[in-house]
Amino acid sequence: MKIAICDDEALCRAEMLAMTQEYSEQYTGQHIEFAAFSHAEDLLEAAKKIGGFDAYLLDIVMPFMNGIELGVELRKRGYDGKIIYLTSSEEYAIDSFRAKPFQYILKPFEKSVLYATLDEALESVFAQKHRSIIVRTQESNIKLNLDNILWAELNRRTVVYHLNGGKTVESVQIRTTFPEAVQELTKDSRFILCGASMVVNLQHITAVENEALIFKNTFRAYLGKKACREIRSIWYDYTFDGEGSK
Q1: What is the pLDDT of residues 8-42, one digit of tens each?
Q2: Which CATH architecture group holds 2-129?
Q3: I need a labelling partner for 123 at 20 to 30 A (CA). Which of 39, 80, 132, 212 fits?
Q4: How far apart are CA 196 and CA 214, in angstroms?
């Protein structure tokens, strides 16, 4: 698990880092890594390098780019980590919904409040990361984490799974329709069918072009113009109004 902290005030940043490191020593469910940033631009650059953090602890009042603008930018870039705002003012609460935060905590706060919020956020992330399916291939049965699947498509009578990092896994020939073959994916709110021969992971889409979807700012899946128009609206709703920002 990777958590980013962003606060322009050095003292507050140090206090948050110490508090979260203490939390990580008590949290037995997962190894946790922390990174602290004084500017939003530095956090965005770090997120780009590692593909995003699992959670973000953000101050709101910061120069150049405030915490709400930072949260919105993270969503625009396709990062769906849990955003937790930490601020001394209530006045930004409504505006913060633009970034669909997981929680909004007013300073000063007890450590127990932050720790309970982190518990909820990380348990949600952990559960999502470890959902998986079993794919039968010509050589063996392979377990694929849903979090690692960018998209899957019908290729003649097989299903080809495109994974984060560029690897693909091809199933044996299917004896059902494609929607039936990938129903374990579409039970998860991150996945949606595109026509009759492709299912995509909304979580990993970073742009929708006229005729293609871009995943992780790197991988491109080609669709027709009509399909891209339809998926653009669904992807936007998922990222800014739906499950992708919870």
Answers
A1: 999 999 999 999 999 988 875 668 899 999 999 99
A2: 3-Layer(aba) Sandwich (3.40)
A3: 39
A4: 20
> Alpha carbon of 132 to those of 147, 163, 216: distances in Å?
8, 13, 20
CB 82 within 8 A of CB 56: yes
Over the stretch 125-139, which tens digit does the pLDDT of each residue have?
887 777 899 999 999
Q: Looking at the DSSP assignment, which residues form a beta bridge with residue 155?
A: 158
Work out whether the CA dihedral 79, 82, 83, 86 comes out positive or negative. Answer: negative
Residue 122 has which token pair? 């990380």
Q: How far apart are CA 85 and CA 32, in angstroms?
A: 19
State which fold the 132-245 domain adopts.
Answer: OB fold (Dihydrolipoamide Acetyltransferase, E2P) (2.40.50)
Q: For residues 193 and 179, is the Cβ–Cβ distance under 8 A?
A: yes
